[in-house]
Amino acid sequence: MNRFLPPAPIPKPLVIITSLVESHIQAAIYCSKKHGMQIRVRSGGHDYEGLSYISYQGPFVMVDLVNFQSINIDVENSTAWVQAGATIGQLYYTIAQKSPTLGFSAGVCPTVGVGGHFSGGGYGMMSRNYGIAVDNIVDARLIDVNGRILDRKSMGEDLFWAIRGGGGASFGVIIAWHIKLVQVPKKVTVFTVNRTLEQNATKIVHKWQYVSEKIDEKLLIRILLGKANSSQVGKETVQASFVSLYLGGADTLLPLMQQSFPELGLVRSDCIEMSWINSILYFAGVSGEPLDILLNRSLLVTTVTYSGSYFKGKSDYVTEPISEAGLESIWRTVLEYPEDIEMQFSPYGGRLSEISKSATPFPHRAGTLYDIQYAVSWTEAGKSALNRNMRAIRRFYSFMTPYVTKNPRSAYLNCRDLDLGVNNKGKTTSYEQASIWGLKYYGINFKRLVHVKTKVDPGNFFRNEQSIPTL
């Protein structure tokens, strides 16, 4: 893996345990505790900072759940049990094999692992209609610090609450999720409309901020922003790609858009009607491929340019629309950077806003307009390229401060960012110190997460650079 190549000072695990059965995980916990080793658990793979397979805190063992990929669909009750080592692509494929009118509300990248994605929240293209993944979880199986296998009833409602958005790795090893499937129409509509600055992108993005959170919840329009070639030869501009899923046909979508967002100029030829499962391929950039490509755990997703050998991501939340002047300042800054800084604006509202901020640890509910993901990726090896790109995205993140949430400046756990702060190495981290990053991810829910952690893992065995601390 490129992360382990020089000059990156990343320690490798002492041993990787690819458990075949649950008792192997229990044994790994017992042995690691006995010998003073840390455990890192990799489900299907997700963490931006790689905390599922690296540790900056000392010798560690990695428990890899790659063999835990079982998925059992109950069509009659619209539920499924999915083991934590599966990917969301595998889950989507398996659902579609059983029913054309069932789906699940989670992310767009098929190779993201269920274990991390669900425990951190799980935003996706149906979230405005059905909520995020954690809003549709009804049970789980978890192995705790004492090696006990617990379900919702035996773990209790506090722990069940904590693992649905609080990051499962702080509390135990989640081995399976019981999820509530959602109804999808036989026909959905997708579109991607590109607009550059020369094509009035600034005014369109500005209006999008007032529309995207309030529009019909069956419609989700996100924006991908980055550099593109200008109509002026030899010059660059900023392009906004409006990428959308509508849970219905184009004949209903077009008048809806004409009424609510005519500035985009959507026309019938922009709209593509397809099944929900084919929309998964569309957003992954592999339209036309056989559905079983979703089973490919190393599929390269092309709709976002996280495709370099190296990558850094960050996130923000926006609660007040950015002015046109503010957007123009952002575009100028993007174009000034030699590095390719990309952004993704993802709208909230709908079902996301109807659920209480404290119903799950995921606090970004009513009042949130959209979330921003920042990304920089590069292919050049070596420390110089690493430092240059890391400096660029950190500078840009600092530049964005006036436009995003404050006190705290919020972040999305599933865009893990160690720049926000880390736990102490080898000694206890205080509640106050962990609050620096904990409040950004969890808001008002951080204190309750700390109390749950203290109760279920008082010795802080399950820990990482941003795990929930004990009191």
Automatic annotation (TrEMBL):
Alphabetized InterPro entries for the sequence: BBE (IPR012951), FAD-bd_PCMH (IPR016166), FAD-bd_PCMH-like_sf (IPR036318), FAD-bd_PCMH_sub1 (IPR016167), FAD-bd_PCMH_sub2 (IPR016169), Oxid_FAD_bind_N (IPR006094)
Domain of life: Eukaryota
All residue ranges annotated as the FAD-binding PCMH-type domain in the record: 9-184
Annotated keywords: FAD, Flavoprotein, Glycoprotein, Signal
Pfam families: BBE, FAD_binding_4
Cofactor dependence: FAD
GO molecular function, one term: oxidoreductase activity
Protein's recorded name: FAD-binding PCMH-type domain-containing protein
PROSITE patterns named among the record's database cross-references: FAD_PCMH
Protein family membership: Belongs to the oxygen-dependent FAD-linked oxidoreductase family.
